[in-house]
């Protein structure tokens, strides 16, 4: 038996089992190594009639190559080649041949991965679309928060530059609406009830009553919090002060 036709397999006990690609009969340990099972599992299969070894003597039991193939074919329901009895040494899992040189397939895969970062559909550029990483960096978003934003405002997506991209116009609009919904851009044009209470020394009921009486425009945002339009409030407040008897008395006293 030549060395070129042998494959060394490590058994579970650490010993080395030589298996030849031309070998017709195998010992129990060799069968277990070929099938990737333990000896205990091998004997269980024999006891259940899945394998039929031949006992040559009290200490020698062998299983034929055809018996092993027949057992596997019966389990899979299809005909197998005999490649399980030989090991392909042409290439390893890292895309290198037996001499340690990278094969052409591995080179092509690496080039394809690099090229994927530069590929994009027609009309998709870094000027028109954000990548996920760019959105998270620009708006201080986490990926989970970005996903929520995308689902809430139905932002379209497209695969480009090796990642998921989103139209800049749609993202900017969604972020703006989200900030307004959360009340982060309302401070410039809207009062909160707390601000009115602090500025004018009013109670919560007085604020709401004044807004209802003078038809001050309101809106709900940031968890149904009520906001009052500054322009309406200040205009109606000046009108109310002009009509107030105490204000008139002050004017008469001043004249």
TrEMBL record:
Protein name as it appears in the record: Helix-turn-helix domain-containing protein
Record-linked InterPro entries: HTH_17
Organism: Prevotella lacticifex
Comp. bias intervals (Basic and acidic residues): 90-107
Disordered: annotated span: 90-120, 235-255
All residue ranges annotated as the Helix-turn-helix domain in the record: 25-74
